[in-house]
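Example for tutorial group B:
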């Protein structure tokens, strides 16, 4: 690729689709997500049965530009704030958990690539006639060695959420040297995330699960091949090449934002479903509606408060971190750890909410197709992701204890 061609990435390779797709406000993005929500709901069963987003759902997300909301403006995206992205993903997950999860995987993977790959890669990935949608497992499922101009590596991966309609795939690879892991200064192994076109990836299926079955989280293999330096990024030590200050928060913050949004959306949908059921259904051997039961009313009030609390904390934690990054100030460890805390804790709250709703739904929770049953299955699968492992709450505690025992308390 010529130097002149590579330098052209400084301007957006894609002409904006229309004036309405530039400078979209926070409220405008939420309106777009809500605009497609009825279709996403109607397509939920097709998405579930197909194990990946339905064609209609993909088209709706393309048409509303949701896939590229967070992508840096320099490569043709919209560069919306991370806090806005959370609310977009929550709205879609409210319509259907699998659809929200798939959007999360694609939206954030595409944004991360847009911010961190080299200029040559940015031009090739984002400058073509087909707008890119990325997916992949950024954890180390493979190995690579440095060679002249880049890396040579391969790997086998699971959980490639959103890969059914992605045209670029990423995969994390341990960087090897003389048969051993090459280490970062802190002693951790180096992991290069390598991006390759879809036609250089072999998809092997293997997505038959109890929940989130429509996420297209298929296994895939990146065969042994050369990946130019510009198409890779070091997973832990990242310097944004483009995009806003929020990318300084790193991959962990982006992952936490996405998972928190899914928990919010599924919990909210479960509350809506049981509210509707309770006002029209009686329990066996009862002459009154579920909504008239004092036991139900007490429980619903508690769970509704839990949802409001988890949503308020998630949005505050991410807004605080993003505003600090935007101000140019260092983001303290406490603020970063609160992102992890909020994400893991919100999943604990969401499971309690969904379980309560599922219990009171009775037969409406179990007869397929059932939105409430889907919420139950999706939420319990969501809790198994490493980003919300229960050890996280223990890991963040030392930093939070310092806050509560410091001189300013």
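The residue assignment follows.
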């Amino acid at each position: 690729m010529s130097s002149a061609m590579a330098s052209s990435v400084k301007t957006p390779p894609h002409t904006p689709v229309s004036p309405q797709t530039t400078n979209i406000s926070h409220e405008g993005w939420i309106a777009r997500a809500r605009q497609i929500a009825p279709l996403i709901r109607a397509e939920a069963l097709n998405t579930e049965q197909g194990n990946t987003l339905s064609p209609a759902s993909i088209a709706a997300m393309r048409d509303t530009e949701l896939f590229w909301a967070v992508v840096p403006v320099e490569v043709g995206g919209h560069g919306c704030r991370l806090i806005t992205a959370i609310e977009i993903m929550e709205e879609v997950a409210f319509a259907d958990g699998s659809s929200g999860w798939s959007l999360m995987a694609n939206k954030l993977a595409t944004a991360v690539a847009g911010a961190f790959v080299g200029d040559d890669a940015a031009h090739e990935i984002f400058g073509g006639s087909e707008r890119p949608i990325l997916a992949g497992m950024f954890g180390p499922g493979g190995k690579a060695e440095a060679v002249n101009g880049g890396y040579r590596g391969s790997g086998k991966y699971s959980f490639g959420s959103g890969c059914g309609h992605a045209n670029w795939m990423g995969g994390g690879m341990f960087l090897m040297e003389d048969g051993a892991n090459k280490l970062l200064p802190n002693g951790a192994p180096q992991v290069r995330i390598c991006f390759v076109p879809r036609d250089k990836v072999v998809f092997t299926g293997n997505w038959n699960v109890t929940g989130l079955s429509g996420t297209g989280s298929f296994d895939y293999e990146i065969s042994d091949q050369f990946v130019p330096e510009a198409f890779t990024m070091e997973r832990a030590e990242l310097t944004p090449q483009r995009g806003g200050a929020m990318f300084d928060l790193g991959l962990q913050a982006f992952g936490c934002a996405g998972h928190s949004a899914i928990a919010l959306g599924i919990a909210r949908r479960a509350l809506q479903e049981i509210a509707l059921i309770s006002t029209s259904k009686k329990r066996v051997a009862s002459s009154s509606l579920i909504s008239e039961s004092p036991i139900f009313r007490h429980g619903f009030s508690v769970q509704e408060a839990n949802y409001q609390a988890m949503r308020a904390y998630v949005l505050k934690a991410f807004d605080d971190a993003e505003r600090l990054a935007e101000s140019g100030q260092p983001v303290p460890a406490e603020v970063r750890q609160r992102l992890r805390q909020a994400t893991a804790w919100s999943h604990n709250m969401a499971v309690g909410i969904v379980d309560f709703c599922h219990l009171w739904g009775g037969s409406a929770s179990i007869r397929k197709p059932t939105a409430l049953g889907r919420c139950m299955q999706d939420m319990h699968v969501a809790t198994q992701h490493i980003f919300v492992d229960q050890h996280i709450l223990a890991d963040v505690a030392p930093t939070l204890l310092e806050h509560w025992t410091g001189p300013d308390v």
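The two ends are 57 Å apart (CA to CA). Compare this with the pattern of hydrophobic and polar residues in the output above.
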